Amino acid sequence: MRRFPPKNRADLLCRGFSRKKAARLIDERRTVFFFIAGIQPKTVEIESHPRMCSSCGLYQARLKRMDHYFSLFFIPLLRVKKGDPFIQCQSCGSLFRESGQEAWRGPSTKPEDRCPHCGLFLEPAFRFCPNCGKEIF
């Protein structure tokens, strides 16, 4: 005779278990749930129209905001805190407040530290541009 796991207390009673033993066996089969929850930051792009970066001079600065979301299983569900808007340059990485005041300047902004082909900022030791792959003079 094959034995199947008991589904409920009545099933155990039909198999000949006493009420006490059936209640104890049912209590031992508790289901355990776990949740992964927390607060995580998420950068939201407010304006897709590029602005001129006052640090590097390229039109690659975008208006963004850092919001904090309540997340369940790493999925953002509810916005908990709305952040202040800032401008971030995608080329040099500099950060500015919405008023234009500089908050953080990216790497060196000298023109000789940039790739002459694509405009990416480079370290002085680079012989080739990691973005476009062309040789640096």
General description of the model:
This protein is mainly beta and 137 residues long. It is 12% helix and 33% strand. It contains two helices and six strands, in the order H-H-E-E-E-E-E-E. It has helices at 9-14, 19-28; strands at 37-51, 61-72, 75-81, 85-89, 95-97, 102-104. Strand 5 (95-97) and strand 6 form a beta hairpin. The longest helix has 10 residues, at 19-28. The chain starts with 8 loop residues before the first helix and ends in a 33-residue tail after the last strand. The mean pLDDT is 80.
Quick summary:
This protein has 2 helices and 6 strands.
Rg measurement, Å: 30 Å
What is the first-to-last residue Cα distance? 84 Å
- In terms of quaternary structure, the protein is single chain
Average per-residue pLDDT, rounded, comes to 80
Helix amount: 10-25%
Q: How many strand segments?
A: 6
Contiguous uncertain segments of 5+ residues: none
C-alpha geometry: elongated
Q: What percent of residues are in strands?
A: 25-35%
Q: Structural class, judged by helices and strands?
A: mainly beta
| Biggest sheet descriptor | 6 strands, antiparallel
How many separate helices?
A: 2
Q: What is the N-to-C succession of helices and strands? A: HHEEEEEE
